[in-house]
């Protein structure tokens, strides 16, 4: 079961005046006059600012602080399965999901936050959770991938490959835009990676068109990326044997 922290901006007051000095920012005394001499003023945030590059860390630190302040049984599960404002809940016992929903809602309320957009592959959980707290009844994005809770599938988007005679830079950029953290698309991307490796060996320039004799190889690889997305069943398994792998 997954969920989302709404607005995810905890109302943390910066109580110590000297700490507020680290949050200074420059603004205009009169917006209509623009940035001219004598029209600048310095302010300080009184609450922890968000919308900055360090905001994901500030959010995580704030939530962990609240967890210490308000102990709850569900806290450990949320701490171990939290990424920015996404929360995951894992269990092998389907009947535990409703309690996880209630506990996480109650815990977040103590933080001054609201957890919402719950989605689960469990029909029992979906029937228990109020409609206003459920994610829209359609595939939803989670951690960069599309999760269809009803059919329990994961979908990975595939960008459009470059046309014509690409440069090494264009091919590297294309590969970087394929977000596949679990390696599901490895059978597709391995040929592209090998091709890029061979291009590096030729020492051609970053912005140079790939050699003419490599164009047929690229065209063959490009045909494998005709689909815009790839959908697979979300699979969990304990069928592994590390001794055989070694």
From TrEMBL:
Check the record and name the Pfam families matching this protein.
Answer: Peptidase_A17
Extract the signal peptide range.
Answer: none
- Reverse transcriptase domain: residues covered: 1-147
Highest taxon of source: Eukaryota
Q: Which InterPro entries match?
A: DNA/RNA_pol_sf (IPR043502), Retrotrans_Pao (IPR008042), RT_dom (IPR000477)
Q: Which PROSITE patterns match?
A: RT_POL
Q: Could you tell me what this protein is called?
A: Reverse transcriptase domain-containing protein
The lineage is: Eukaryota, Metazoa, Ecdysozoa, Nematoda, Chromadorea
């Amino acid at each position: 079961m997954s969920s989302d922290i709404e607005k995810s901006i905890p109302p943390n007051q910066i109580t110590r005046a000297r700490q507020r000095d680290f949050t200074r920012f420059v603004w205009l005394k009169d917006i209509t006059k623009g940035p001219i001499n004598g029209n600048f003023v310095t302010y300080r945030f009184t609450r922890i600012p968000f919308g900055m590059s360090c905001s994901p860390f500030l959010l995580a630190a704030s939530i962990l602080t609240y967890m210490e302040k308000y102990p709850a049984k569900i806290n450990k599960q949320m701490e171990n399965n939290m990424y920015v404002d996404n929360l995951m809940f894992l269990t092998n016992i389907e009947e535990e999901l409703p309690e996880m929903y209630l506990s996480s809602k109650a815990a977040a309320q103590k933080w001054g936050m609201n957890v919402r957009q719950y989605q689960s592959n469990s029909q029992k959980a979906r029937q228990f959770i109020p409609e206003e707290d459920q994610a829209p009844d359609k595939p939803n994005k989670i951690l960069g991938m599309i999760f269809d809770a009803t059919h329990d599938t994961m979908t990975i988007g595939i960008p459009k490959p470059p046309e014509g005679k690409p440069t090494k830079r264009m091919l590297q950029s294309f590969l970087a835009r394929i977000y596949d953290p679990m390696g599901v698309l490895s059978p597709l991307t391995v040929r592209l990676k090998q091709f890029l490796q061979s291009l590096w060996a030729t020492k051609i320039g970053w912005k140079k068109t790939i050699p003419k004799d490599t164009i047929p190889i690229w065209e063959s690889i490009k045909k494998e990326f005709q689909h815009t997305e790839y959908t697979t069943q979300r699979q969990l398994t304990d069928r592994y044997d590390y001794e055989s792998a070694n």
